[in-house]
Design brief:
14 helices, alpha+beta, 6-stranded antiparallel sheet, 54% helix
C-alpha cells in the first residue's frame, strides 16, 4: 500500500494552507462549507459536522462537449459535420488562472457576510479584471470564436467562417482552427480555399490521418491528382485497406488517365458482394465499371453498372452508360 501525505496549516481565521503529495492548496470557510483551490482546480467542500460525511465538487469537471469529435470511420465518405469546437488550445485560459478567478469570486462573496467592504472590493476587482480580459487580443479572439460556434449551431456556415477568420486576424498562430475553416470552405463549395487550409493545418499536425484523407479528397476535386496520390500513399497501412481510401486513390489514377493503375488499386477492394450497397460501395462499383470501360472490357463494365442500377436507377450517369454499352438495355 502506497504512503499518503496530507497536512492542513491554519494561516488565518477560516483560511488554511493544505499540503499533500499532489501539491499545495488554499481553502477558505468554516465548519460545513469551504471553498478552495488545489492541484486539481477550484472546488467547494460541504460536510455535516461531527459525522465524517463530506462532499467535494470541482468546477469545470465532467462538462459535455457541444460538438462530437470528427468521425474516424473510414468505411464512409469523410464527413464535415463532426466539427471539433472545444476552445482552441492556443486560446484556452490556463486552468490555474481560471481556478484562481473562481476562488477569488467565491472568497469575495464570503467576505460580503464577514466584512462587506473587503467583499465589495474583491468583486469590483474581479469585474475590472474580466473587462480588461474581454478587451485584450485574446479576449476578442475568444469572442469571435464563440460567435462562430453559435453560427455553426444555427447552420449559418458563412457567418461561422467569417468569425473564425476574424479569430486568425487577431491571432494568426491559432493553427488548430485551420481544420474547421477548411471544412467550412468545403461546405461552401470552395475547394481551393479548403485545400489551402487543410495544408496549413497539416503543417502543424502532420500525423492527423483523418485530415490527410479529407485533404486528398479535396485535391482530387481540384484536379491535383499527383499530390492527392502522394498524400494517400502516406496514410497508415491499415487505413489504406479501407474502401473510402481505395475509391479516392482509384479516382486520382483515373483523373490521370491511368486506368490500369486504377484497376490495380480497385482489385484490393471487396472480393464479395455486400448484402447492402452503401454509397462507398456504389462508388466502388461505378469506378470499377468506368475502369473496365476505359480498358475496353465492356462486358465487365456492364456487369458493374447493372449492379448499381438495381440498387439506384438514378445513380450518376449509370443509365446513360448502360444505354451506350448494352443495346438490349431498355431503361
Amino acid at each position: 500500500m502506497g504512503w499518503r501525505f496530507r497536512k492542513s496549516i491554519r494561516i488565518a481565521k477560516g483560511v488554511r494552507l493544505n499540503l499533500s503529495k499532489r501539491g499545495v492548496g488554499l481553502s477558505v470557510g468554516g465548519k460545513g462549507f469551504r471553498v478552495g483551490i488545489g492541484p486539481r482546480g477550484a472546488y467547494t467542500s460541504t460536510s455535516i459536522p461531527g459525522t465524517g460525511l463530506y462532499s467535494i465538487n470541482y468546477f469545470g469537471k465532467n462538462k459535455s462537449r457541444d460538438f462530437p469529435k470528427a468521425e474516424q470511420n473510414f468505411s464512409s465518405q469523410p464527413k464535415i459535420e463532426g466539427y471539433n469546437l472545444n476552445m482552441p488550445p492556443e486560446l484556452a485560459t490556463s486552468s490555474i488562472y481560471t481556478a484562481l478567478g473562481c476562488l477569488w469570486f467565491l472568497i469575495s462573496v464570503i467576505f460580503l457576510f464577514i466584512w462587506w467592504p473587503i467583499g465589495i472590493l474583491g468583486i469590483i476587482i474581479q469585474i475590472a479584471w474580466a473587462a480588461k480580459s474581454a478587451n485584450s487580443p485574446t479576449g476578442k479572439a475568444k469572442n469571435h470564436f464563440l460567435q462562430g460556434k453559435i453560427a455553426l449551431q444555427k447552420g449559418e456556415w458563412q457567418k461561422a467562417l467569417e468569425e473564425f477568420l476574424k479569430v486568425l486576424e487577431v491571432n494568426p498562430k491559432i493553427n488548430s482552427l485551420y481544420r474547421e475553416i477548411a471544412f467550412l470552405y468545403r461546405r461552401l463549395d470552395n475547394p481551393e480555399e479548403a485545400a489551402k487550409y487543410f495544408e496549413k493545418y497539416l503543417t502543424s499536425y502532420p500525423d492527423d490521418a483523418v485530415i490527410k484523407l479529407n485533404y486528398a479528397s479535396i485535391l482530387g476535386i481540384t484536379k491535383q491528382y499527383h499530390k492527392a496520390i502522394e498524400i494517400l500513399q502516406s496514410l497508415p497501412p491499415e487505413m489504406k485497406q479501407e474502401l473510402v481510401v481505395i475509391n479516392t486513390l482509384a479516382s486520382a489514377f483515373l483523373g490521370l488517365n491511368k486506368p490500369e493503375l486504377a484497376l490495380e488499386v480497385l482489385e484490393k477492394g471487396p472480393v464479395r458482394s455486400r448484402k447492402t450497397m452503401d454509397e462507398q460501395m456504389k462508388l466502388f462499383r461505378y469506378l470499377l465499371g468506368i475502369t473496365y470501360k476505359e480498358l475496353g472490357e465492356n462486358n465487365k463494365a456492364i456487369k458493374q453498372f447493372y449492379k448499381i442500377y438495381v440498387e439506384d436507377t438514378e445513380y450518376e450517369d449509370v443509365k446513360a452508360l448502360l444505354k451506350e454499352l448494352d443495346p438490349s438495355f431498355g431503361g
